[in-house]
Amino acid sequence: MKTKFKVGDVVSWNSEAGRVSGTIIEVHTKDFAYKGYTHHATEDDPQYEIKSSKSDHIAAHKGSALTRG
Predict the structure, then answer these.
(1) Please, is 19 exposed, middle or buried when counting C-beta atoms within 10 Å of its C-beta (0-12, 13-18, 19+)?
(2) Would you give per-residue pLDDT tens digits along the chain (69 residues)?
(3) What is the pTM of this model?
C-alpha cells in the first residue's frame, strides 16, 4: 500500500543538493500545471507540493519519492 500524506506533514526527499525536508502545503489528485509542465496525479497516486524548510522553494513530488520526517 502506498503511503498517503496530508497537508502539514513533514517529509524529506533526495534532490541534486542532497536530502531536503519540508512541509506539504497542497495535495493534488488531478493533473495540474506546475513550472511549465503538466504533472499527472490521481486519487490513487497523488502528487504533493512541498515547501522546503530551508528556503522558500516549492517542489512537486509523487508520494513514492517522499519519506516521513
Answers:
(1) exposed
(2) 577 899 999 999 998 878 999 999 999 999 999 889 999 999 999 999 999 998 889 999 999 999 998
(3) 0.89
